[in-house]
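Q: Convert this sequence to structure tokens.
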Amino acid sequence: MMLSGRARTVWIGAALAALAGCSAAPPASLTDPAPDELAGWLSVAESASARLANHPADQAAARILAFAVRELEAGGVAPAEGQPDLITRWRQQAETAGASRPGPPLRGRVLGPLYRRGVVAPHGEARSEQAFHGGQLARVTLAPAQPGISLHVHGTADARLVTCRQRQVHECAWLPLFTERYRLVVRNSGNRSVTYFLTMD
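A:
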């Protein structure tokens, strides 16, 4: 079963909501996630993993975690330099909890997007840098999308390129003229720390 991009986005939000009560299971099949949805799946996996750590017998959380891992593997997402291999850790956690991999193993892409996990303090900002190739579409997404959280991209002249649009994720897309490093800034105007994921493609 292939779902549209809108249906996938709705399901990511539904999975996060279900984890609050863990009363829902993921659909039977969903393949080839788009790059702008991978940050959302990272947030789903993080929430399911935390739920499972506190409730080891929670099979709904285990199934959601296994499903999110499958989507991330299908997208070929990999940790950025210096970041932990969360996907392997999550897969092992789901398997330990008894959740089987949904559907056949997927090969994924040879070169997929990178992910970065971070925490931004209340009324603070978190900065990181990433190189993007000139003449190729660059895309950065941030999840979870929630009030007070924003993503900004700065070039070498430190001019803001774009403020991300918000759906289930924040998304920035642009075409770099030259190959260079860009500063990615996550701002938090809220009163609580936020754990976030960036994917870069």
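Residues 1-7, 22-32, 104-111 have pLDDT under 50 and may be disordered.
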